[in-house]
Protein backbone atom coordinates (compact mmCIF):
# COMPACT_ATOMS: atom_id res chain seq x y z
CA UNK A 1 0.00 0.00 0.00
CA UNK A 2 1.58 3.24 -1.16
CA UNK A 3 0.89 6.39 0.83
CA UNK A 4 1.97 8.36 -2.23
CA UNK A 5 4.11 8.18 -5.32
CA UNK A 6 7.48 9.92 -5.16
CA UNK A 7 7.41 13.05 -7.35
CA UNK A 8 10.39 13.64 -9.62
CA UNK A 9 11.34 16.79 -7.71
CA UNK A 10 11.86 14.71 -4.58
CA UNK A 11 13.95 11.94 -6.12
CA UNK A 12 17.22 13.84 -5.75
CA UNK A 13 16.60 14.42 -2.03
CA UNK A 14 16.35 10.71 -1.24
CA UNK A 15 19.61 9.43 0.19
CA UNK A 16 18.77 5.99 1.65
CA UNK A 17 16.12 3.32 1.55
CA UNK A 18 14.98 2.96 5.17
CA UNK A 19 12.77 0.16 6.45
CA UNK A 20 10.92 0.35 9.78
CA UNK A 21 9.71 -2.92 11.27
CA UNK A 22 6.77 -1.94 13.47
CA UNK A 23 4.12 0.68 12.69
CA UNK A 24 3.22 1.59 16.25
CA UNK A 25 4.12 4.42 18.60
CA UNK A 26 7.87 4.27 17.99
CA UNK A 27 7.84 3.00 14.41
CA UNK A 28 5.64 5.71 12.97
CA UNK A 29 7.71 8.41 14.69
CA UNK A 30 10.98 7.03 13.31
CA UNK A 31 9.36 6.88 9.86
CA UNK A 32 8.36 10.54 10.18
CA UNK A 33 11.92 11.57 11.11
CA UNK A 34 13.51 9.64 8.26
CA UNK A 35 11.01 10.93 5.71
CA UNK A 36 11.60 14.52 6.86
CA UNK A 37 15.31 13.92 6.24
CA UNK A 38 14.54 13.05 2.61
CA UNK A 39 14.83 9.28 2.77
CA UNK A 40 12.58 6.73 1.11
CA UNK A 41 10.82 4.91 3.97
CA UNK A 42 9.04 1.55 3.97
CA UNK A 43 7.09 0.48 7.04
CA UNK A 44 5.96 -3.07 7.72
CA UNK A 45 3.99 -4.63 10.55
CA UNK A 46 2.45 -8.11 10.90
CA UNK A 47 -0.77 -6.55 12.25
CA UNK A 48 -2.97 -5.22 9.45
CA UNK A 49 -4.71 -2.73 11.75
CA UNK A 50 -1.34 -1.17 12.61
CA UNK A 51 -0.44 -0.89 8.93
CA UNK A 52 -3.79 0.69 8.12
CA UNK A 53 -3.46 3.19 10.98
CA UNK A 54 0.01 4.39 9.95
CA UNK A 55 -1.07 7.31 7.70
CA UNK A 56 -3.35 8.70 10.40
CA UNK A 57 -0.62 8.39 13.03
CA UNK A 58 1.97 10.12 10.86
CA UNK A 59 -0.49 12.91 10.03
CA UNK A 60 -1.34 13.47 13.71
CA UNK A 61 2.34 13.65 14.66
CA UNK A 62 3.09 15.99 11.77
CA UNK A 63 0.30 18.29 12.96
CA UNK A 64 1.71 18.22 16.51
CA UNK A 65 5.02 19.43 15.07
CA UNK A 66 3.14 22.13 13.11
CA UNK A 67 4.51 20.83 9.82
CA UNK A 68 2.90 22.76 6.97
CA UNK A 69 0.69 21.17 4.32
CA UNK A 70 3.35 21.17 1.60
CA UNK A 71 5.92 19.43 3.77
CA UNK A 72 3.32 16.97 5.02
CA UNK A 73 2.46 16.05 1.44
CA UNK A 74 6.15 15.49 0.68
CA UNK A 75 6.46 13.25 3.76
CA UNK A 76 3.58 11.06 2.66
CA UNK A 77 5.14 10.78 -0.78
CA UNK A 78 8.25 9.26 0.78
CA UNK A 79 6.51 6.70 3.00
CA UNK A 80 5.06 3.40 1.83
CA UNK A 81 3.53 0.52 3.76
CA UNK A 82 4.44 -3.07 2.99
CA UNK A 83 2.65 -6.24 4.08
CA UNK A 84 5.57 -8.69 4.21
CA UNK A 85 8.92 -8.39 5.92
CA UNK A 86 10.71 -9.92 2.93
CA UNK A 87 9.41 -7.30 0.52
CA UNK A 88 10.02 -4.50 3.01
CA UNK A 89 13.72 -5.19 3.63
CA UNK A 90 15.06 -6.56 0.35
CA UNK A 91 15.96 -3.08 -0.99
CA UNK A 92 16.81 -1.51 2.37
CA UNK A 93 20.07 0.22 3.20
CA UNK A 94 19.11 0.43 6.88
CA UNK A 95 16.47 -1.42 8.91
CA UNK A 96 15.16 -0.06 12.21
CA UNK A 97 13.32 -2.70 14.25
CA UNK A 98 10.65 -1.23 16.53
CA UNK A 99 8.84 -4.34 17.73
CA UNK A 100 7.58 -5.01 21.30
CA UNK A 101 10.18 -5.43 24.07
CA UNK A 102 10.42 -9.23 23.88
CA UNK A 103 13.86 -10.76 23.35
CA UNK A 104 12.79 -13.89 21.47
CA UNK A 105 10.54 -11.87 19.15
CA UNK A 106 13.35 -9.46 18.29
CA UNK A 107 15.77 -12.33 17.70
CA UNK A 108 13.29 -13.97 15.36
CA UNK A 109 12.72 -10.72 13.44
CA UNK A 110 16.43 -10.17 12.91
CA UNK A 111 16.94 -13.77 11.78
CA UNK A 112 14.35 -13.10 9.04
CA UNK A 113 15.80 -9.70 8.20
CA UNK A 114 19.26 -11.17 7.80
CA UNK A 115 17.80 -13.80 5.48
CA UNK A 116 16.19 -11.25 3.13
CA UNK A 117 18.23 -8.05 3.41
CA UNK A 118 21.23 -7.25 1.22
CA UNK A 119 24.70 -7.83 2.71
CA UNK A 120 25.38 -4.09 3.00
CA UNK A 121 22.19 -3.35 4.96
CA UNK A 122 22.69 -2.02 8.52
CA UNK A 123 20.53 -3.73 11.15
CA UNK A 124 19.40 -1.60 14.10
CA UNK A 125 17.22 -2.50 17.08
CA UNK A 126 15.21 0.11 18.94
CA UNK A 127 15.05 -1.21 22.49
CA UNK A 128 15.19 0.75 25.71
CA UNK A 129 16.64 -1.88 28.03
CA UNK A 130 17.42 -5.24 26.38
CA UNK A 131 21.17 -5.63 25.75
CA UNK A 132 21.81 -5.42 22.03
CA UNK A 133 24.31 -8.29 22.23
CA UNK A 134 21.52 -10.63 23.33
CA UNK A 135 19.30 -9.57 20.44
CA UNK A 136 22.00 -9.92 17.79
CA UNK A 137 24.03 -12.86 19.15
CA UNK A 138 22.67 -15.46 16.73
CA UNK A 139 23.27 -13.45 13.54
CA UNK A 140 25.92 -14.54 11.07
CA UNK A 141 26.71 -10.90 10.19
CA UNK A 142 26.84 -9.36 13.67
CA UNK A 143 29.37 -6.76 12.50
CA UNK A 144 26.59 -4.76 10.82
CA UNK A 145 24.19 -4.84 13.79
CA UNK A 146 23.81 -2.30 16.57
CA UNK A 147 21.26 -0.64 18.80
CA UNK A 148 19.53 2.68 18.23
CA UNK A 149 17.55 3.65 21.32
CA UNK A 150 15.09 6.33 20.23
CA UNK A 151 13.28 8.10 23.04
CA UNK A 152 9.50 8.43 23.11
CA UNK A 153 8.14 10.28 21.22
CA UNK A 154 10.90 9.67 18.67
CA UNK A 155 9.88 12.48 16.31
CA UNK A 156 10.14 15.04 19.14
CA UNK A 157 12.86 13.89 21.56
CA UNK A 158 16.26 14.68 19.96
CA UNK A 159 18.37 11.94 21.56
CA UNK A 160 19.18 8.60 19.95
CA UNK A 161 21.62 6.31 21.76
CA UNK A 162 23.74 4.33 19.28
CA UNK A 163 24.77 1.16 21.09
CA UNK A 164 27.79 -0.81 19.90
CA UNK A 165 28.22 -4.47 20.64
CA UNK A 166 31.56 -6.25 20.79
CA UNK A 167 31.03 -7.20 17.13
CA UNK A 168 29.85 -3.89 15.66
CA UNK A 169 32.17 -2.60 12.94
CA UNK A 170 33.33 0.99 13.61
CA UNK A 171 32.32 2.10 10.11
CA UNK A 172 28.76 0.83 10.71
CA UNK A 173 28.44 2.82 13.94
CA UNK A 174 29.90 5.91 12.25
CA UNK A 175 27.51 5.62 9.31
CA UNK A 176 24.58 5.49 11.73
CA UNK A 177 25.96 8.52 13.58
CA UNK A 178 26.14 10.47 10.31
CA UNK A 179 22.64 9.40 9.24
CA UNK A 180 21.04 10.50 12.51
CA UNK A 181 22.99 13.75 12.68
CA UNK A 182 21.85 14.71 9.18
CA UNK A 183 18.28 13.86 10.24
CA UNK A 184 18.57 16.59 12.93
CA UNK A 185 18.69 14.12 15.80
CA UNK A 186 21.19 14.24 18.68
CA UNK A 187 22.97 10.89 18.48
CA UNK A 188 25.45 9.74 21.12
CA UNK A 189 27.73 6.72 21.01
CA UNK A 190 27.38 4.08 23.73
CA UNK A 191 30.74 2.35 23.60
CA UNK A 192 29.78 -0.67 25.74
CA UNK A 193 26.53 -2.62 25.61
CA UNK A 194 25.14 -2.45 29.15
CA UNK A 195 21.53 -2.87 30.38
CA UNK A 196 19.65 0.41 30.12
CA UNK A 197 22.46 2.04 28.10
CA UNK A 198 23.01 5.62 29.40
CA UNK A 199 19.72 7.48 29.66
CA UNK A 200 17.69 4.80 31.40
CA UNK A 201 20.48 4.04 33.86
CA UNK A 202 20.49 7.71 34.88
CA UNK A 203 16.70 7.99 34.90
CA UNK A 204 16.09 4.90 37.00
CA UNK A 205 18.81 5.75 39.49
CA UNK A 206 16.68 8.83 40.18
CA UNK A 207 13.48 6.76 40.26
CA UNK A 208 15.01 4.29 42.73
CA UNK A 209 15.80 7.11 45.18
CA UNK A 210 12.39 8.72 44.58
CA UNK A 211 10.59 5.48 45.45
CA UNK A 212 12.81 5.00 48.51
CA UNK A 213 11.94 8.46 49.85
CA UNK A 214 8.24 7.59 49.75
CA UNK A 215 8.77 4.05 51.04
CA UNK A 216 10.77 5.38 54.01
CA UNK A 217 8.09 7.89 54.94
CA UNK A 218 10.31 10.91 54.27
CA UNK A 219 7.73 12.54 51.99
CA UNK A 220 4.75 11.80 49.77
CA UNK A 221 4.88 10.95 46.08
CA UNK A 222 3.38 14.37 45.32
CA UNK A 223 6.22 16.08 47.17
CA UNK A 224 8.86 14.08 45.28
CA UNK A 225 7.40 15.17 41.95
CA UNK A 226 7.08 18.79 43.09
CA UNK A 227 10.69 18.93 44.30
CA UNK A 228 12.02 17.65 40.96
CA UNK A 229 9.81 19.87 38.79
CA UNK A 230 10.32 23.02 40.90
CA UNK A 231 14.10 22.75 41.41
CA UNK A 232 16.85 20.93 39.55
CA UNK A 233 14.43 19.59 36.94
CA UNK A 234 14.13 23.11 35.55
CA UNK A 235 17.87 23.18 34.85
CA UNK A 236 18.29 19.74 33.32
CA UNK A 237 17.40 20.72 29.75
CA UNK A 238 20.26 23.23 29.67
CA UNK A 239 22.66 22.01 32.37
CA UNK A 240 23.75 18.36 32.56
CA UNK A 241 24.78 16.81 35.88
CA UNK A 242 28.52 16.79 35.18
CA UNK A 243 28.36 20.31 33.78
CA UNK A 244 26.67 21.27 37.03
CA UNK A 245 29.37 19.50 39.06
CA UNK A 246 32.06 21.44 37.22
CA UNK A 247 30.07 24.65 37.56
CA UNK A 248 29.85 24.44 41.35
CA UNK A 249 33.31 22.88 41.58
CA UNK A 250 34.42 19.28 41.87
CA UNK A 251 35.68 20.01 45.38
CA UNK A 252 32.19 21.03 46.52
CA UNK A 253 30.75 18.01 44.69
CA UNK A 254 33.11 15.77 46.63
CA UNK A 255 32.12 17.40 49.93
CA UNK A 256 28.42 16.83 49.17
CA UNK A 257 29.05 13.19 48.25
CA UNK A 258 30.99 12.62 51.46
CA UNK A 259 27.90 13.69 53.40
CA UNK A 260 25.03 12.14 51.43
CA UNK A 261 25.98 9.13 49.29
CA UNK A 262 26.23 6.76 52.27
CA UNK A 263 22.53 7.32 52.97
CA UNK A 264 21.16 6.94 49.42
CA UNK A 265 19.22 3.86 48.33
CA UNK A 266 21.56 1.25 46.83
CA UNK A 267 19.46 -1.91 46.59
CA UNK A 268 20.27 -4.10 43.60
CA UNK A 269 16.63 -5.21 43.27
CA UNK A 270 13.33 -3.42 42.75
CA UNK A 271 11.84 -1.87 45.88
CA UNK A 272 9.61 -4.16 47.99
CA UNK A 273 7.21 -1.21 48.14
CA UNK A 274 7.04 -1.09 44.34
CA UNK A 275 6.50 -4.85 44.18
CA UNK A 276 3.66 -4.57 46.69
CA UNK A 277 1.74 -1.80 44.95
CA UNK A 278 1.96 -3.76 41.68
CA UNK A 279 0.75 -6.91 43.47
CA UNK A 280 -2.15 -4.86 44.87
CA UNK A 281 -3.21 -3.85 41.37
CA UNK A 282 -2.13 -0.23 41.78
CA UNK A 283 -0.76 0.08 38.25
CA UNK A 284 -0.78 3.85 37.93
CA UNK A 285 -3.01 6.03 35.80
CA UNK A 286 -4.53 3.08 33.93
CA UNK A 287 -6.07 1.79 37.18
CA UNK A 288 -6.51 5.17 38.88
CA UNK A 289 -3.96 4.47 41.61
CA UNK A 290 -0.21 3.90 41.64
CA UNK A 291 2.14 5.94 43.79
CA UNK A 292 -0.63 8.55 43.64
CA UNK A 293 -4.38 8.57 43.03
CA UNK A 294 -5.56 9.70 39.61
CA UNK A 295 -8.92 10.76 38.21
CA UNK A 296 -10.30 9.60 34.89
CA UNK A 297 -8.95 11.71 32.04
CA UNK A 298 -5.87 12.96 33.89
CA UNK A 299 -3.53 10.68 31.94
CA UNK A 300 -4.54 12.31 28.66
CA UNK A 301 -4.16 15.78 30.16
CA UNK A 302 -0.64 14.97 31.33
CA UNK A 303 0.36 13.39 28.01
CA UNK A 304 -0.84 16.50 26.16
CA UNK A 305 0.99 18.76 28.60
CA UNK A 306 4.23 16.85 28.08
CA UNK A 307 3.88 16.76 24.29
CA UNK A 308 3.09 20.47 24.11
CA UNK A 309 6.10 21.25 26.30
CA UNK A 310 8.41 19.11 24.17
CA UNK A 311 7.12 20.63 20.93
CA UNK A 312 7.72 24.13 22.29
CA UNK A 313 11.32 23.21 23.08
CA UNK A 314 11.85 22.23 19.45
CA UNK A 315 10.74 25.61 18.08
What descriptors fit this protein?
Rossmann fold, alpha/beta, 2 domains, N-(1-d-carboxylethyl)-l-norvaline Dehydrogenase, domain 2, eight-stranded mixed β-sheet, 315 residues, 8 strands, globular
Characterise the protein shown here:
The protein has helices at 8-11, 25-36, 48-64, 69-78, 85-89, 103-116, 132-136, 170-182, 199-215, 221-230, 241-248, 250-260, 272-279, 298-313; strands spanning 17-21, 40-44, 79-82, 94-97, 122-125, 145-150, 159-163, 186-190. It has 14 helices and 8 strands. The chain starts with 7 loop residues before the first helix and ends with a helix. The protein has an 8-stranded mixed sheet with strand order 3-2-1-4-5-6-7-8, sandwiched between helices. Helix 2 crosses helix 3 and helix 11 (241-248) crosses helix 12 (250-260). By secondary structure, the chain is of the alpha/beta class. It has 2 domains: 8-190, Rossmann fold (3-Layer(aba) Sandwich); 202-280, N-(1-d-carboxylethyl)-l-norvaline Dehydrogenase, domain 2.
Summary, kept brief:
This protein is an alpha/beta fold and 315 residues long. It has helices at residues 8-11, 25-36, 48-64, 69-78, 85-89, 103-116, 132-136, 170-182, 199-215, 221-230, 241-248, 250-260, 272-279, 298-313; strands spanning 17-21, 40-44, 79-82, 94-97, 122-125, 145-150, 159-163, 186-190. It contains 14 helices and eight strands.
Amino acid sequence: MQMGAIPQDDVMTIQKHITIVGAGLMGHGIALVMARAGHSVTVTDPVSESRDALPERVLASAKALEINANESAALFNRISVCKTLEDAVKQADIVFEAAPEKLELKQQIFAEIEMYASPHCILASNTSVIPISQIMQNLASRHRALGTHWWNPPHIIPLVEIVKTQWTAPEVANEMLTLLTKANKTPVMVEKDVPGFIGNRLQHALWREAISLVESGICSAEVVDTVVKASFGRRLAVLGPLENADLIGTDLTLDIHENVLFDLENRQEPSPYLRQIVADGRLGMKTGFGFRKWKEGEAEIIRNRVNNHLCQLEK
